Structure formats: structure tokens, C-alpha cells
Amino acid sequence: MRFDWWTLGLQTVNFAVLVxxxxxxxxxxxxxxxxxxxxxxxxxxx
Length: 46
Fold this sequence. Notes:
Layout: H1 5-45
């Protein structure tokens, strides 16, 4: 079995792009939604 540095490098770049996209498209909006719900609950029960 041969170790190919190009494949490792490209897979690393692809993984970094995937993590960035998931963070931007999924993580941030979910956190905003949770913060909005938390603020609404605090407003209702305060």
C-alpha cells in the first residue's frame, strides 16, 4: 500500500471546506435560533 501525499492534502482541504460550510450554514443559524428562543422564554417568565 502506497501513501499518496496529494490525496492526503486534497482530503484535508475538502474536510476543512466541509467544516467551514457546516459552521456557516448550520451551526450559526441554529445558535441564533436557540438564543432567540432563550430570550423569548426569559421575557415571558421574567
